Fold these 2 entries.
Entry 1:
Amino acid sequence: MDADVLHRLNEARTARRAVVLVKNLKTGKDSLVFEGETVADDLPGDLIGEAFRTGRGKLSESEDLFVSAYLPPPKLIIIGAVHISQALAPMATMAGLDPVIIDPRTAFATPERFPETTVMAEWPQDCLPGLGLDAYTAVATLTHDPKIDDPALTVALEAGCFYVGALGSRKTHARRIERLTDAGVAADGPSSIKAPIGLSIGAATPSEIAVAVLAEIIAALRQRPDAAA
């Protein structure tokens, strides 16, 4: 691999910027396509778009080009050390997401309740800015407490997270939208929140709700619009 290409690739990975490497197997030439860039006419736009969505490499039908994806590891920020979170965190880990649980209520946010998961007993507005939320971060707010959930939703929307979901009924969410709008959140921000959170599968127990939430997050991650034009 060309030294300049390798340097740019490493820079992108350090900055958590998605990039696809296209190698011409006949000439040995390497090309990089960053998420959001226009794809050159001589590169396979369909394979590049698929690579951004799936994170998987693929050989072109002509077998001249091999496309490799380098996507940032997805993160899941769970607001609320609740029963749903106890099921959601280990399932998220198994699905390849890196979960972090945030809840200022120290009685709930304990390592004993969430083994092998990072737990932060802090207010979301205090710790979220330091966690590097980005387009490969999902945020699920589960406390049902506006004092905890609303600041987290505001930060997540401003950061452009690929998924933002909130627990609560449609009536609860309508009041939530009013609060966020009154607080100055951009008009299109609250409307992008997934609420009631999770796919509509009739989930009733905390574990079932966790399954519905994780499925919705995976759908948002893998069904992203084409990342390259």
Entry 2:
Amino acid sequence: MPDSQNNKQALVIGGAGGIGHACVQYLEQQTNIATVTVISRNSINSTCSKTTGIQVQQQNEDSIRQVCQQFPDKHFDLVICTLGLLHDFETGLSPEKKLEDINEQAMLRYFQVNCILPGLWLSALVNKMNPKDSQMVFLSARVASIADNRLGGWYGYRSSKAALNMLLKTAQVEYQRRAPGCQLIAYHPGTVNTALSKPFQRNVKPDKLFSPEFTVQCLFKVLANLPDKPPPFYLDWQNQGISW
């Protein structure tokens, strides 16, 4: 983010997860950030005076609209949406290894969390962004790349994150009319040591398993050095472009 102003307003959606919490802590330390609003299912216990937590037990269209009604005078300079689902052992949800593993309920759940909810935030926030200079980041994944898919598997996760990417590509067209200075970013953070990746870390090299704090540092380096071309952007933690 450019640091020429010291009154920037940030919003973190999913602020209790590993990456979301690290984002909140990072933003609290930045002198150019005046307010940090955090959306989370759990209460936010922050001692920072600039941080306000909004607890939302169940995110859906109504609750998202109600939250955004609390921002009548806000124009956010930065939004980071960390919503994402890869597995849920309580319900038996796990990435598919073969076509026979695909089932309706799992696919619906993947799309609800990875695509529909971010899409609802995109819709609800279009009039809440700084129209001159702002950024919206949505956590995507390299495995969402259609062009780069050579391994197959993980049908629900891949497809729902690819659908998220298409949402961002499509929404950027309308954002360019309604908030022309707002840049949409699909961001691949790498493999991060959080609950989302925990069951799949066995084959990850130690130097490729990142802490949430390192991941957030990389994210903000990327945001400060976005490519000199029209958005949206699909980038990894090294600021390398990914084929849509």
